Predict the 3D structure of the following.
Amino acid sequence: MDVVARSHARRDSLRQPPVPPGERASTADASSRPWLVASGLLVALVLAPIGGLVFYAAKGSGDLWPHLIGTILPTALWTTLLLLAGVGTLVAVVGVGTAWLVAMYRFPGRKLFEWALLLPLAVPTYIVAYAYLDVLHPIGPVQTALRALFGLERPGDLWFPEIRSLPGAILLLGFVLYPYVYLPARALFLMQSPALVEVARTLGAGRNRVFFKVALPLARPAVAVGTSLALMEALNDIGASEFLGVRTLTVAIYSTWVTRSSIEGAAQIALVMLAFVVMLVTLERTARRRQRFVGRASKTRPALPIGLTGGAGMLATLACALPIAVGFLVPAAYLVHHALIRLIENGLPDAFAGWVINTVTISAGATVACVTAGLVIAYTGRFARHRLAKPLVRLSGLGYAVPGTVLAAGMLMPFAAVDNAIADLWRAATGERIGLVLSSLGVVLVVGYVIRFLAVSSGGIEAGLTKIPPTLDMAARSLGARPGRTVASIHVPLLKPAIAASGLLVFVDCMKELPLTLMLRPFNFETLATTVYGEAARGTYEDAAIAALMIVVAGLAPVILLARSSFRDAPKGSQRERVAETPVERGVVVGV
């Protein structure tokens, strides 16, 4: 009887008149409304720091701007421009050069270099600077060995390039950040049709001309995205720049806030820096929009690498080994050496357990919140049928383009207002003073992490969603399932790898993040990153070796994830369709 009743009900439903288009649109708008509201709240949270910056900048006295323009901004702005120009040039040359070598040539160590060239991503820039300051110190191992070699006794008798300089900062940052260019550039080189290269060679073009006239123009979008991402990381850096004596806009914001206790001045410098970031992003997007290069990936056969032997093969090996040695092997060996000495002589620091617990707790809380928010943003783009959906999704990633010092300066006003309101309500209700609850519990720091890395989680989840065909959604909707049930029953099981990968990336980014942690952490709250910064600022490098090594070991996890997803074995001919699947390769992580 139940079967008969269901068949009659289905027959009656088929006899119903079709739903008018207007009613279908209103139904779609109604189902999209929760996603739009949730995304709108997240975007408001992302934009709140900008409002805070404007508030504090306008609150500053009229004499502050002339002082900043006359003394601080010219030097900081010029230094920042030189730093970005040098780092951008170096990451583009090293990233593109190594990507072209491993993609198109066969030489000793090529298979190893394919994944090893990603290793510098595991080492934060401030740890690299901290390590090289000790390694290249006048009484460090390098200069001591050179003096012994040449028979010199006093440190002043040997001339050695000063690492605490702008060229030193450009060199170190460039050799750490080049993988942001290497990864997408390699993917684009592998996706290019080998017929283009073969035709150019049959027309008499040599290797250099093929590279500069054919391959490089087709890879420009990947190079532009990777370079812009590396520049954002260089602009966000505070530890390496301060350790190396380079006074950038980021360092100027931090010193104005902390040293001079002028949040108004820090906000005004932060607004200048924000305008600089907007200009940088606009230039990058304009340059990409004007390009009209089109390449088709070959699905029939991969390009055969050209064998390099003798001197050419050795030069290719050295060219790929040098950035790995500078960006990873030297600082990693330094950390392992001094960490072992510290463990043997003194054991673990007394406060080590507290550093680890603070780091893991705050990073885990931020990861859960960030992945949850990333799901909301990704599903807004998936389900919402409204003209505001795409702008909301794009604006949600704005925090990744804003340096941590700028975010921290802008977050102070809105969250201080909320904190004060909570304290006033509690005092009115109980008569007790509780202070700034959100700040003391680390909630403000967690929110800062969410704003900063929301583009990372939403981009990874969105990349996973693209692999779920819309036909599954249609089938679920035809069976009466609402979007919430579709997400829980179909999408989440299929998205577990993407969610796990996004969570891992966010967790490690939170562990390594220094500017936000320094400026928004609760009082007396030390993490692994702030411990490294504090010990390096005091010159006690060996005491921070264990904490720094733990950060590097944690940073290896996303590098391994990227290597496995990018370089795993695949059937012949499918390599080109697979190599651009990770968020970094596709530019999703840029979030701008």
